[in-house]
Amino acid sequence: MLKQNTINDVRGAMSPSKKADKINTVLKDRSLWLDAWHRLKQDKIAVVSLAIVLFYAVVGLLSAMGLLAANWNEVVGPSYAPPSADYWFGTDFLGRSVSRKIISGTQVAMSVGLISSLIAIPIGVGLGACAGYFGKWVDEAIVWFYTTFSSIPSIMLLMSIAFIIQKFQVEISEVFGANFDIGLFAVFIALGLTSWVGLCRLIRGEVMKHKNREYVQAADALGAGHTRKLFKHILPNVTHIIIINTSLQFQIAIKSEVILSYLGLGVSGQPSWGTMINDAKEELARGVYWQLLGATIAMFVVVLAFNILGDALRDALDPKLKGKS
Amino acid sequence: MFKFGLSIVLATAFMTIGCTKKKNYDEKVLLRNVKAKIKGLDPVNAGDTYSSREISRIYEGLLEYHYLKRPYTLQPNLAESMPVVSDDGLTYTFKIKKGILFQDNKCFPEGKGRELKASDFVYSIKRMADTRNISTGWWLLDDKVEGLNAWRDKYSGKAANYSDEIAGIKALDDYTLQFKLTTKYPQFLYSLAMVYTFAVPYEAVAMYGEEFLNNPVGTGAFMTETYKQSNKIVYVKNPNYRDVFYPSEGAPGDKERGLLKDAGKKLPLVDKIVVNIVPESSPRFLSFENGDVDFSEIPKDNFESSVTPSKEVTEAFKAKGIELEIVPDLDITYIAFNHDDPLFKNNLKLRQAMSLAYDVGRSNELFQNDRAVEAQTIIPPGIGGYDKDFVNEFAKYDLKKAKALLAEAGYPGGKGLPTIVYDTLATTLYRQSSEFFKKCMNDIGVNIEVRQNTWPQLVDKTKKRKAQMFGMAWLGDYPDAENFLQLLYGPNAAPGPNGSNYNNAEFNKEFEAAKVMQPGPERAARYAALAQKVAMDVPLIINLHRTTYILKHSWLRNHKFSSFEHGNSQYYAVDMDAKEKTIKSGVLRMNHKKATAKVD
Amino acid sequence: MSDLLEVKNLCVDFNTPEGVVRAVNDISFTVPQGKTIGLVGESGSGKSVTALAVMGLIPNPPGFISGGEILFEGTDLVKSQEDYMRKVRGNDIAMIFQEPMTSLNPVFRVGDQIAEVLILHMGMTKKQAWDRAVDLINQVGIPDPSRSALKYPHEMSGGQKQRIMIAMAIACEPKLLICDEPTTALDVTIQQQVLELMFDLQDKYKMGMLFITHDLGVIADIADDVVVMYRSNLVEQNTCENIFTGAKHPYTKGLLSCRPALDRNPERLLTVSDFMEEDGSEIVVDDEKTIKVDKVYNVDEEKNPYLLEVNNLSVHFPIKGGIFGRTVDHFKAVDDVSFKLRKGMTLGLVGESGCGKTTLGRALLRLLEPTSGQVIYDGIDITALDKKELKGMRSRVQIIFQDPYSSLNPRMTVGEILLEPMKLHSIGKDKIERIEKAKWLMEKVGLKADQLARYPHEFSGGQRQRICIARALAVNPEFIVCDESVSALDVSVQAQVLNLLLDLQEEFGLTYIFISHDLSVVNFISDEVAVMNAGQFVELDQANNIYLKPKEDYTKRLLAAIPKGIPKSLIEGQA
Amino acid sequence: MNGNLNYIIRRLIYLIPVLLGVCFLIFILFNVVAPDPVNMMLGKHPTADQIIEVREQLGLNKSLPAQYLDIVKSAFTFDFGRSWATKQQISTMFMNGAIPSLTLTIPAFFIATFSSIIFAVIVAYFRGKGVDLFIRVTCIAMMSISSLVYILVFQYFLAYKWGLFEISGYEYGFPNFLYYVSLPILIWVVLSLGPDIRFYRTLILDEIYQDYVRTAKAKGLSERTIMFKHVLRNAMIPIVTYTVVQLPFLLLGSLLLESFFSIPGLGDMTISALNASDFPVLKAMSIVSAVAYIIFTLIQDIVYTVVDPRIKLQ
Prior knowledge:
The complex is a heterotetramer of chains A (325), B (600), C (575) and D (314). Chain B has 600 residues and is an alpha+beta fold. In chain B, 28% of the residues lie in helices and 17% in strands. Chain B contains 19 helices and 21 strands. In chain B, the strands form 6 sheets. In chain B, strands 14-18-13-17-15-16 form a 6-stranded mixed β-sheet. In chain B, strands 1-10-9-8 form a 4-stranded mixed β-sheet, with no helix packed on it. In chain B, strands 4-5-7-6 form a 4-stranded antiparallel β-sheet, with helices on one face. Chain B is globular and about 80 Å long. Chain C is an alpha/beta fold. Chain C is 37% helix and 25% strand. In chain C, helix 4 crosses helix 5, helix 7 (158-170) packs parallel to helix 8 (188-205) and helix 16 (414-424) packs parallel to helix 18 (461-473). Chain D is mainly α and 314 residues long. Chain D has 2 domains: 2-77; 99-307, MetI-like fold, CATH 1.10.3720. Chain D is built from 13 helices and no strands. Classes of the chains: A mainly alpha (325), B alpha+beta (600), C alpha/beta (575), D mainly alpha (314). At the B-D interface, helix 1, helix 7 and helix 14 of B face helix 2, helix 3, helix 5, helix 7 and helix 8 of D.
């Protein structure tokens, strides 16, 4: 019954590598992520905010590598010079250019968002998936763990974690070398360890829902093991939640850095929007508004972009829309 | 549902549209703001300057500093006269004034304040030695009074028996008190003017127990009416207060400034004192400008709008009737090297280079608005041992010489020198000053890594000798240069006050000899020589002696700033009619331009 | 007597991202006073949209009425203002919807929800409206009406909730009652009672009724005239009698013939595609195909040996209670069931919702751990196998689920879905061979081989069910459990899938257990039928014995409730 | 009714391990790992032997399990001993701190919740139209500015420049505290409008697309009655449960508002405890807010059954 010729022409005629992707295209010629990208592209504002986010990421990267605004520490004019042609955002108490500090501050903001998410995602998704998938006592234990974690106000957790890191300052600086910025490291860990609970709850609920869906039971009937069911079937259907949640978590991290530096747990040694806004506490009284203005605008644009992007991603990635097309 | 919700929102929103509180002017009230929360009103653990200031409004000691005379001179307060000192300088005998009453309180029989007796002092000083009170003042008399340490160790950790007699402190009769010291200790008299040794009634301690710190019972001019430890304290006059009169002579120039107008009047001169606790500096100063408080220091960022470069009040403030008082403080700020670290210990050239690279003048300009005096030695102006003509060659800013010295120290241009960790506090002011220090050191190639700490963490680090370099300030406990020189005294190393762990045998020997001398010009010369000699060894980067700038409203009278403000509030007076006129005129509300226009 | 409702050349369009879609194209029909018009068609035919158009309830963005008139007692509803429509809705025209479970507001008592429409339109006071509501609840046949009125929707069964919907609809004695698939979600016995209730109420209130359904059986029982819609067009309109005796349009003919009926048991069902080409042109059907051949139940000992033996199988779910959540009682989903099944035969499992048929199907495959009993498959006791051995058995036993939308992983292409089972059971040496097998499987189930790269959401419900069958076949199974595999499909598509299952059974000698609540479907496909109720087998016998000579009265009641599919006018004629 | 009782008891029993877990987490964070505060307590001149005596008195040398048991005991008795920094009785500090905090947070919370529900209903009612878009955009924009900036700008302009409000401070007693808390309340409301409106809007929209709304329309009800009677009544279920969960955090007050406006509430107390490494106070604050959170999750379950007839306590 099988049509013999189809097998030969596939096997003989082409070189192995070409043959491989010929086969693969038979199975899958475009990914759903591409569809989502096309949908996202239709939303003009979303594209603009994505561009803004990428622009900030590039600026952050360049300043991290020292290619951009590395000379933020250089005195360029009198202290507290108001904004003028040569200093767009004026100068700070030492006479350093505020606009350079803003650019260099992008590095802190973006790294805080990125690294705290990189810490929060694996924990949140890992625990959430296990709780949702295995259920019974595993679920009980993980639910108990994150209820305990979330019942302590997050500000207390942030403070105490930052304390702990500063307590081990001496040991850490031996490991990472003296000029390693402990303050920033404390912010990363503190934010990372307190922001995973929301994601964990979301993933647990979603995995539980998908576990009972019939395509997973069908895989079960085919003899698929736990790992295959979880990683090949359930998790791909849940990744869109991770993406949407991360974009929201990013902007929360950026805003928390300001509060942390107010509590004295923030960055020291390099400029950050948080410290600039905090300096403004006293400066505002003497009419020095430009450092506050600059930092606030810089943060406003990127946080707004993240918010809009978060909503747009939800519409583009949400399978409900795709399922009913 | 909708209408109901809307009405609730509008009602509460309208209620909070906001209105400022109406003010009343009939009662004579002294209003002031304070930076830190008051820990408690128990003399034995006064802790910081803010708590001691509040405690000294209620309690009194044997001696006190004269309100007006400068330099600060001790005078008897509860004691009738200065003590009779034995020839070997070890026995001090005091006579107590008769008829001094504690304020009325329910801890006394029928609530009536009883008369102060010599035995009260024996009890109070023993309380300071009692380990269970964890007194912050115990260092004053540690190993100084015969039998006191023995008594302390005997009851360490247990309920102390106060009737257990000790040789060092004895009430010979109701009105005579005798101290026997173990060593010559001229600073002993100062300790009797400090809050830790103030008289405390045993009945109050017995009755209130652990809550005694919130129920003060003293002999002073005021007593507490309401006491919200983290928000506000209101004092009222103590009816049992004995007759104390405003001094008729003071320091030269006081008469011209009208400080002797109320001479001879019975104290206190105000009916009530209201102390508000406002941690943030900008709201604190804004409430002064609004007239909500009678006087205030000037935060760094409000200096330009308050004081002209020639150190006078700006035209706008003059128009508002605001006056300025400038008083040097018994204070020294410095950046310490941790001499445990070999990098600094045996490399004098490196220390000299870093000291020269630090631009003290610019730091004074940036952070003290040029108010402070550039320090030459560790001894501040205003006390014996300060020589205003001495110039410390390593305290000035000389980049070229600094670079040369750094090269001689073995690190040309900073090459080979590891990154130095500088620990500072996390407040905005300290973070900015550490960034300034980092910039100065970068100018000669020395790389600094700034680490932020809360105050306890910084103290913890310095006491455990883990801080490589750190900024520190020292406020004098009493007007005696010994209190400053002991910062470099070897045996005082951490956890003692010598955070730099500096240990110079020769200096230690000379210091031990000088500190036991009786106060006088000879001791002052000895102190000066000692300080100048040790400065050449650059034990730390000397920085500034800060001066206090006080802005006073027109209606505040007799205010003279003192580093030892114990009980001074009884001398202040408030002209309520002048206050009402100025506030109602709205001149305070006018912004700077309009106010000055009004003057011309 | 003028017509109650006259729909003239009605057109309704929807704005979609891919442009304007016409959902209803030039429909005209009339609903006379006291008469019932059946509007029949499959999903996507536009029948519900027509109903919503009459009520003016088309969701404004994205839908809109683009042409035609809806005359209700002379006035054109399309042109009238919103507040006029509001006075008409619920008062003169009332509507009943399909999903009773979600159509009532969960947080209000049912009595209040009925009283609300009375207060709104009849100006009654609260007290009067409540009493009238209790009376209406009584009229729709709900026991203890005064107490039931105080109940919340979740405290009532699906059937009772539908009765409440009916009470709410007839509260203001409307002239026209529109019912959009009111009984589709109900079990067949309850469906019968609800239909009778609606029938009596129609007589009592002389209401015109527009009855929308996809089930021709129901139409025959209740409709006077019938309107047939297909892909937003009206293809045929006639009296019920004429439609059933001599349908003219090929689609109607296809629709009539593809419905399995109890009294006849053809070898294969004719489907719409046998009567009509894709573009709508007619195919002349030769008689041979329409011959009704009664399937003969012949058992050949060595061709059909016993493959599956189930002894005293039970599945009990613990019910938690008390403070510490101890199990207080057990819900006996499957209670001591025993039967044997021969190779190549099909056992039908039929029963109302909640009778335990699905649980039994899952327990057989140990997708659900049975509490006790044995399942011996080809001599091997499946219940005793451990995890690893069970995996080996998986290739021999497979399952096909009900909901096409949730039984395929939306993130995997059809090719990947078909290759997964082969990889798991290492069928085929390498990828190329597996792809060939996948292509072969696609053709086997009637789909195009070049669609392997497509995603599930790009296929229709029927096509997805075919992919599920292909996935099951990928492991060359011998025994397949079909759990309500066709219930979610339209009648015409249902017929094609049933035919496919029968073809595959013949070609590969497959053994089926076919689970369904639809007796006529079970009758068509099964050799033997087991009727289940409350976890137990009420009756187990050959298919036609069950239907012709039912022994147990539960089975009898079940059979009686199935709509005959013969217009009542004919039955009256014959009786 | 006994069904509910069983449920409540079971929930309470379930909460005990959570409380033990919280105590353990606090124990790790503050006892095992926290730096040594003793030096700080002894002021400028600590002597070596004095430090040892103090460690003994503060119970720092107790065995770790003993310290853990102290925490657990304090979680039930609320007797937290004395603060290291100020030697005050912590429970009295709480009493003094609770009143100012609550006078700020309770009115602020209810004004914010009510106004955001009203706005959310308006936005849902006019969904898709201009009003909806405008309010949503302003919400996102308002959320994108850090809360600290709002505090600084509002305090400087509203309080100092135009003198509309008291700059800082606090007075106990009914009419007086209003002058001091009105500006912080205004800031709190402005800060929480953004996120709340977005959240409540999604809740209401979820309800609008339900089947019973279509039935209501078919009954001839007007859009307004449907929105306020049917939809809002259903949407209130998630709204009420969401509000109840936020109540425990009102106790903690707003750290920033209290420290900037020197309102001596629990938030301000927390910040000074942080700056003074005053661990008994920080521990006490964590325990109290954790216990409050746990109790309120239980209350939330009960409220859920009261508000939603469908839920039986099982």
